[in-house]
Every structure is written in structure tokens, then in C-alpha cells.
Amino acid sequence: TSIAGCGRELVALASCHPNGYVREAALRAFSGSPEFLPFVIVRLPDWVAAVRSTAAELFRAQLDLLDAEALVDCLALFERLKRWERFREEYSTWLDEALRRPSAIEALRRGACSVTSAVRLRCCRLLPVLEGVALGLRDRDVAVRRWAFGAGVAVMPKDELMRRAAADSHVSIRRLAFTEELSKEQLRVFLFDRAGSIRGEAQVRFGPEAVDAYREALRCGGVSAAAVIGIGETGNRADRDLVLPLLGHVRARVRRAAVRTVARFGCEGSEEFLLRMVERDRPSVACEAASVLLRARAIGAERVWRAATRHPTGGVARRVLLWMHLAGKWERLAVY
């Protein structure tokens, strides 16, 4: 197959031709033309062995010709194609070797600010360790931050790293700081963790004093959703009076946690207030209150349904319909 004399755009399109002979000929026409690197990368996992082999040879040769800026520009495409079964791991090794040159530092710094998380991760890993870790710890993607916390052990003070891990927004990273050697005071922080799995383990390790920590937090104004749920997990009905005022808290997350905790302690006497929450509160709180009332069968299912239909958000009524199986048979029939 000969494509000699064809224009550059036509040669690039020919590399995507259904016929493998045409694709291979197009790749050979790329020889000595580094600007065609993206089309070469696309053919690295080609389904025809001869095309893959030709693309690999060109890719290896062009890595020495191109500057780091061009390579970083192709990283998003490269990372996408890595998922393909025919993509060989050695391609990544070749690329990393080319990007570890001292002249590639500025290009890697630019790549560490890419919109693609996989590109940011690769660039952080190829930068000098301390700089890469510093950028990774501030990244918005959890995979990049997880790598940074793992690599940071070798270059940062452990106490500072664990303090930052404990304050991270993602549970998998906070768990890195939840180690066996934590002191009682350090363990106390995890009693108020948003993740139930971490909070539960902290309660077991903290012992019977865990409920006192929750009581103290609620009495001293340290109200959070985790503290409200925590006292429901460790306290008893005597703590109900601490939780009831929080049904009117300004934050929806705390109100929802209070509804859940009141259900644990028993919602006797609070049924009408919960019914008004179904009718007027934020959708997440209204749904939680409806679930509690239906599960406890404290109020007729028909009244709960009517309150849900008056909510300005139609999604509340739909959720209540899904939970009608919690009510009694005859009450469900009256609603249906």
C-alpha cells in the first residue's frame, strides 16, 4: 500500500483506516514527523500485531525527538489507552524515562494542574518527591491525594502528615491516620468522624467514656451530625432530652441526624413535630422523618402521605411511596 504524495491530514486519517495495511503504511509515513505523535499513540493497542509493532517503534523513536511539553499534551490520551488489554506496560516505562529528564520539570508542573486526574497523578509522581507530594496533598482527586500521603511518609514529618490525613474529606485517607498507636486524645477526634465504620471502631477502642465525650460536646455547643449520631449509637433513653432540641437546629444535616437518633431512643411525644418536618423541612430531613414515622407506626400512614404530598418538592412523596411497605397492610391499602 502506498500513500506517498498524500497530504498530511489525509495521512493522519489513513492511520485510522479499517484496513491494517493502510494503517501500517500511514504510520511509516509518520517517520520523522513528531507532530503526529497522538496518531501513533492511538495505534499502540491496535488489534493487528504488525500495526502495534510499527507504532511501538515510532513511539520509542519519537520520545527522543519531542520536547516534554508535547509529551505532556498527549498524557490524557495515553492514560485513556492504558486501560486497553493490548496496551503494554513498557510503553509507560519509556514515557516515564523521557519525562524524567531535567528539562521536563516545567512541563510536569503544568501537567500537575491538568483537568485530568490521571495526568495530574503521573506528573506528581515524576516530579521531585517533595514537590510532587506537596502538589498531590492539595489535589482535589482522592487517588492523587492517596498517592501523596503514601509517598509523603519518606519526606515529611509523620505527625504533620497524619494530622492532614485525619482532616481529609475522604474516608479512605482518614483511615490512614486511624492507626493502632493513637493516644486517647488523638482517638477522640475519630469519635466525631463522618464515616460510621471509623466512628464505630473509635467507640470500641475509646471504651465506655465515648458516650461522655458525645454528651460533653452536645452540652458545650459542639454540635455536629456525627456527635448527634454518636450519642444515639452509645447512649440511652436518658440522653433523649439532649437530642430533642436539635430537631429545630439551623443545619439540615444536624436535624436529620437528630431525627435518626430520636428514632433510636423512641419518638413518643414527638410525632406531630416530625409530621410537620415531613411537610416543610428540607427534602433529606423530610424523608428521614417520614421513614421514622412509618417504621415506628407512630402515626397513621395516610397522615404521613398527606404531609408528604404537601411538601414543595415532589421527590418527598415519591420516596414515601417507596417506604409504604413499612406501614401496616390496611393502612397501605387506604393510601393506594
Textual characterization of the structure:
This protein has helices spanning 8-14, 20-29, 37-42, 49-65, 68-73, 75-81, 89-99, 105-111, 117-126, 129-137, 142-152, 158-166, 171-177, 184-190, 196-206, 210-219, 225-234, 240-243, 252-265, 271-280, 283-296, 301-309, 314-322, 329-335. With 336 residues, it is mostly helical.
Low-confidence stretches: none
* Order of helix and strand elements from N to C terminus: HHHHHHHHHHHHHHHHHHHHHHHH
Q: So how many helices?
A: 24
Radius of gyration from the CA trace? 30 Å
Short recap of the structure:
The protein is mostly helical. The protein has helices at 8-14, 20-29, 37-42, 49-65, 68-73, 75-81, 89-99, 105-111, 117-126, 129-137, 142-152, 158-166, 171-177, 184-190, 196-206, 210-219, 225-234, 240-243, 252-265, 271-280, 283-296, 301-309, 314-322, 329-335. Helix 4 packs parallel to helix 7 and helix 21 (283-296) packs parallel to helix 23.
Topology:
Blueprint: H1 8-14, H2 20-29, H3 37-42, H4 49-65, H5 68-73, H6 75-81, H7 89-99, H8 105-111, H9 117-126, H10 129-137, H11 142-152, H12 158-166, H13 171-177, H14 184-190, H15 196-206, H16 210-219, H17 225-234, H18 240-243, H19 252-265, H20 271-280, H21 283-296, H22 301-309, H23 314-322, H24 329-335
Helix pairs in contact: 2-4, 4-7, 9-10, 9-11, 10-11, 12-13, 14-15, 16-17, 17-19, 19-21, 20-21, 20-22, 21-23, 22-23
